[in-house]
Amino acid sequence: MGKATIQLQDQTLQVQTVPGSGLIRVFLPETDNCFYNPASGLFSTAPASDGATPDLITHHLFELKQKLNEFDANRRAYIAR
Description:
Layout: E1 3-8, E2 11-18, E3 23-27, E4 31-37, E5 42-47, H1 55-59, H2 61-80
Antiparallel strand pairs: 1-2, 2-3, 3-4, 4-5
């Protein structure tokens, strides 16, 4: 299982791969669970109890996807070696 941190705006986010699924779990402060699928470019989120939309996904979606895709590409390149 690959684990890393990425910088997005003024926050450090933890990410980890989900073995056997191709998904990346993103630990966002406003959600219970957030999974990103690099193959489709889609997120699956479970909002926190207050029902708030995760601010980082809403306002920084392009940058977040870009960083997650870079993480996935680096992970795949490492595995290929």
